[in-house]
Automatic annotation (TrEMBL):
Full-protein positions shown: 491 to 772 of 772
Protein name stated in the entry: GGDEF domain-containing protein
Organism: Paramagnetospirillum kuznetsovii
Secretion signal, residue range per the UniProt entry: none
Domain of life per record: Bacteria
Sequence ranges assigned to domain EAL in this UniProt record: 24-277
Amino acid sequence: REAKRQFRGYALASEIGAGPPHEQLSLIGEMRDALLRQEFEVFYQPKLDLASGRVTGAEALLRWRHPSRGLIPPAQFIPFAEQTGFIREITPWLLDQVVARTAAWRAQGLNLVVSANLSTLDLLHSGLAPLVKRLLASSGLPPGQLCLEITESALMDDPDLALATLNQLAESGVRLSIDDYGAGHASLAYLKSLPVHELKIDQAFIFSLMESGKDAEIVRSTIALGHALGLKVVAEGAETDAELGWLKRAGCDVAQGYGIARPMPGAEVTGWMADQDSAVAR
Ligand code: C2E
Ligand code: MG
Ligand code: MG
Ligand code: MG
């Protein structure tokens, strides 16, 4: 399995111009410099509460504003950062940014639950839960305003260790979410043992919601499953009003997608929220 993973990392690295091992090393160096030079940037995508029609949360999504290559999406460097272990330097930086931004919004009277994505390596690292506690304590942010998203596949690398980390995180009061649900292979027996609050249905099911009766049924039953387990259900990748209307009628709790807003720089969120409020008022 390790060999397969290495190969996958190698293939992805070559996609962004880092092929042979010495080029991979230079990419790690470049990422380290990028962190120092503040080239990484956190974008935020609003999450809409379907019952109230209000935005109550956002997901933090990483971007690399590369000086010559422009804005690089996470799919082009996060997998490589995971392969090489560099993600261990990115995640603490990201969480610090997210907690500070969420606390600053709170100070302005904007209370959002903000989600950040974790990788497998983060879950296997015993320092994660203490780090989260420190960040919350020093910022004064109520733990319930931070949500951590974990994919099924990240959990399955070492389910027992992942569960231990999740339990520690849950004790600190942060919210936990299963990301890309339905795309991985975690068993229901395992999932029901997790101290999670939210289930995010994988966007592949949402994309074909209106065209495929099977996908519509999968979404409907996943909403029912989530609710039966006491979880908030989020649909990701809702692009059209028709999809948003369908999801609302189906009892889905929260939606996120281009149909509401694309991910945007943190500095644009309050302005976007104000426009949204005046639209709702009209
Ligand atoms: P994810 O956590 O499942 O995030 C959702 C992705 O779907 C985001 O892509 C978002 O921009 C995109 N998306 C949202 N709504 C729509 C829609 O309506 N249509 C379409 N076509 N796409 C939509 P993004 O930002 O490129 O991130 C991709 C993945 O990279 C994320 O998937 C997550 O797994 C990973 N990622 C992003 N930021 C971080 C990070 O800070 N740390 C880690 N470990 N992973 C991250
Ligand atoms: Mg996510
Ligand atoms: Mg997802
Ligand atoms: Mg669609």
